[in-house]
Amino acid sequence: MSVRRLAEDTVQPAAFAFSKENAAWAEATINKYPKGREQSAVIPLLMRAQEQDGWVTRAAIESIADMLGMPYIRALEVATFYTQFQLKPVGSRAHVQVCGTTPCMLRGAEDLIKVCKTKIAAEPFTLNGSGTLSWEEVECQGACVNAPMVMIFKDAFEDLTPERLEEIIDGFDAGKGAEIQPGPQIDRIYSAPIGGLTTLQPPEAPEKAKAPARAKKAKDDKARDEPAVSVPPSNAAKPKTAADVTNPAVKTPATAKKAAAKNAKIEGETVDKSKPAKKPR
Ligand code: FES
């Protein structure tokens, strides 16, 4: 991380004051915090000062510290730590923040930096000839899926080519930045895949209907190709035994009642009880 210092005294204004509208907003913002915790509003107030003047001056930092009842050094720590705060004057129409972290670098951030060097200034944080543009290289801005990208003010411009970035810079330099659509600069919705959605699609009904038809055809083809073979039941699991119960010649009551009666050893077991018993002589 580079050393971040306040701008030279020669460019520092003598005083700072919020505009009437911003002063009312600042008061409302401070009131959102509990009594004794007003210092928590330091980041939003510094950001508002930057949006008002284009950068964060020493006078603004000290003025905001006074508003929040905090030592100047505490407000200075915040302003110099977070790179979203510009400590020197930047382009009046655009300060281009080029992401140079790995995904963006792999997708061509170096070429975007070359464009900035050619069209704006050879060194970062240097104003162009008319004072309207400046640039810097920043860390990941959280839009890696759509790399490479740049931030200008609060907007991200993604999926950039060097040619598209040149057009965007020219648009801001001409004062037409508000007309340029932020976000992906190619045909994609937000961070959805290029060429359209590939997930979370409704099920394709015709495909579903085709699947059983294909399975049936495969089954029919298989049945046609295979010869019809008669396979007798296997006797492999049948026990080999000479016991009467397994002798097929021995008839059972269920299959042949007369033969079964003949087999019976105890007379009376096979007596037909539906007929009257013989009277004893
Ligand atoms: S690496 Fe560039 S936005 Fe994350």
Automatic annotation (TrEMBL):
Reactions it catalyzes: a quinone + NADH + 5 H(+)(in) = a quinol + NAD(+) + 4 H(+)(out)
Ranges for region Disordered: 195-281
Enzyme class: oxidoreductase
EC identifiers of the protein: 1.6.99.5
Keywords in alphabetical order: 2Fe-2S, Iron, Iron-sulfur, Metal-binding, Oxidoreductase
Pfam families: 2Fe-2S_thioredx
Co-factor(s): [2Fe-2S] cluster
Biased composition (Basic and acidic residues): 218-227, 264-275
Coiled-coil ranges per UniProt: none
Molecular function per GO: 2 iron, 2 sulfur cluster binding; metal ion binding; NADH dehydrogenase activity
Gene3D superfamilies, A to Z: Glutaredoxin, NADH-quinone oxidoreductase subunit E
Keyword Glycoprotein part of the UniProt annotation: no
Comp. bias intervals (Low complexity): 245-263
Domain of life of the source: Bacteria
Family statement drawn from the similarity comment of this UniProt entry: Belongs to the complex I 24 kDa subunit family.
Name of this protein: NADH-quinone oxidoreductase subunit E
Protein source organism: Sinorhizobium fredii (strain USDA 257)
